[in-house]
Amino acid sequence: MNSKPRYQQVKDYVLAQLESGALQAKDRVPSENELVEKMNVSRMTANRALRELNDEGLLVRIAGVGTFVADFKATSHVLEVHNIADEIKRRGHEHAALVLQLSRQHARGEIARALQLGQGEDVFHILVVHRENDIPIQLEDRYVRAMFAPDCLEQDFAVITPSAYLSNISPLQEAEHSVQAAMPNAAVTRHLRMKAGEPCLLVMRRTWSRGLPVSFARLHHPGSRYELTGRFAPANSGNNEYTQFSELGRREQ
Predict the structure, then answer these.
(1) Please, what are the domains in the chain?
(2) pLDDT digits (tens, 9 = 90+) for 21-55
């Protein structure tokens, strides 16, 4: 028997529809009456489930019209390096991370070139799925110079993000970004719970410390749930600081 409260079971049902792609942004979700009939719950229980999902930013309820999937699109600054957990918390949401792989490997091909290493030198490989309110928004596929972070394999990256860990070791001096649209492979599609045929937003990032490239990451994001924004002032404007825009975007219904 399911020991969860009935309202949580209703929430889990709606969340499963969101995660599977059965419900997309702006789609109408089942009404209270439909949930009462389908889930065999009271109207009060269905109302609580929808109300809480609305309060969590996943649904939008319009009086006299219905309840719809929010246009969930997390954003990040394209010109700056930030801890994704901090970005999510600033939006008032919960961050969770699932570590898929943490291992020592020999650098080859693209990885060796990106980190300016000889073929076969040691690197650490970190593969993590980052979630916002239980919805996957980033697959982080990162390689780190082993000599730069010798205790990397001892870290719990479900608790501290790789970005925060690397920044704690030594301040990052420089970052390079490349952003492109890409068709993900089956593994990326599965880990990010994307619909078949959905493109992803791929950020290729290298970071430098102590004059050397120390990290190379491929950051995959579902194209329908993530966007990158940036704003800067020219040097002659008197304000050369980058300004971050990092908030959950919701479009008017």
Answers:
(1) 6-69 (1.10.10.10), 74-237 (3.40.1410.10)
(2) 788 878 899 999 999 999 999 999 999 999 988 87
